[in-house]
Amino acid sequence: MDKENTQPKPQANNPLHGIKLVDVLELLVAHYGWEKLAQKININCFKSNPSIKSSLTFLRKTPWARDKVERLYLDVVEKR
Questions:
Q1: Taking 80 as the threshold, does the pLDDT of residue 1 lie above it?
Q2: Does some domain include residue 42?
Q3: How confident is the model at residue 3 (pLDDT cuts 50, 70, 90)?
Q4: Considering its fold, how many domains does the chain have in total?
Q5: Which domain does 46 fall in, by range?
């Protein structure tokens, strides 16, 4: 097998390519605030003593929650 074929393909069609999760979360918090963000996405890390650090930890371990956050981010960015 050729080594060139085993390299990951560029993610040209991925709108989140190159955007860090921390940047996604910071934009959403700035846009909505923690309370409204918790209403939009009902997860405890947004409701109980929310912080960027604790939310990042949770989102990195929980794919379904991260997916919801990323979709909301794309909606916000699209509307700007």
A1: no
A2: yes
A3: low
A4: 1
A5: 17-79
Residue at token pair 């700035």: 30
CB 25 within 8 A of CB 55: yes
| Gap between the Cα atoms of 11 and 33, Å rounded | 30
In a domain, residue 3? The reply is no
Categorize the per-residue pLDDT at 38 as very low, low, confident or very high, splitting at 50, 70 and 90.
very high
C-alpha to C-alpha distance for 48 and 35, rounded to whole angstroms: 10
Question: Is the pLDDT score of 65 beyond 70?
Answer: yes
Let me know if 1 is exposed, middle or buried by CB neighbors in 10 A (0-12, 13-18, 19+). exposed
27: CATH: 1.10.720.30
